């Protein structure tokens, strides 16, 4: 029987925080405050994915490519939020303004509209640094909930919603950080 000792690493669920686009990004060591709202913990797999295939150029003098460029690029995070509230669901589906409350009954319209709400997003884990069991966070200063969010219901009684968040270029950030960044504590 094989053993993974001494390499065991415990990781907790990742938390998703959102704020209106333009909100100041908190440091990794501080709890988000102000307009930052925790959507809830995640469940299942969480995926941070870079997209952007290379285009290769060839000439008649060489058999292999002589140049490569990346004409477009995307960054997406996929996760399932569990422990939902109606407010969290409203933010994911469309906009918190689409949630109304009358006599202790909340109603969320299903129609999302043509223009998605833009958010700043932090995807944070307390023990997910590439350097070990330290905190790390992906920061998307400007993003939208993409795809078709699907609600899931399970035997454990926790409803969840599958989410895809896509980064949008933020011209307020410096070059190289316009789609977002990863911050990790390393010791």
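^ structure tokens above, recovered residues below v
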């Amino acid at each position: 029987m094989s053993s993974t000792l001494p390499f065991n690493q415990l990781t907790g669920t990742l938390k998703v925080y959102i704020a209106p686009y333009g909100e100041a990004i908190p440091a990794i060591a501080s709890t988000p405050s102000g307009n930052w709202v925790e959507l809830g913990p995640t469940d299942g797999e969480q995926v941070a994915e870079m997209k952007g295939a290379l285009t290769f150029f060839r000439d008649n003098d060489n058999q292999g490519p002589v140049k490569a460029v990346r004409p477009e690029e995307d960054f997406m995070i996929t996760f399932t939020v569990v422990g939902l509230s109606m407010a969290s669901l409203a933010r994911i589906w469309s906009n918190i303004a689409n949630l109304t409350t009358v006599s202790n009954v909340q109603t969320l319209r299903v129609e999302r509209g043509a223009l998605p709400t833009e958010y700043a997003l932090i995807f944070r884990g307390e023990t997910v640094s590439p350097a070990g069991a330290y905190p790390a966070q992906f920061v998307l200063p400007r993003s939208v909930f993409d795809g078709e969010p699907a609600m899931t219901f399970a035997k454990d009684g926790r409803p969840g919603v599958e989410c895809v968040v896509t980064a949008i270029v933020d011209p307020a950030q410096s070059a190289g950080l316009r789609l977002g960044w990863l911050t990790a504590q390393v010791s």
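Residues 1-11 have pLDDT under 50 and may be disordered.
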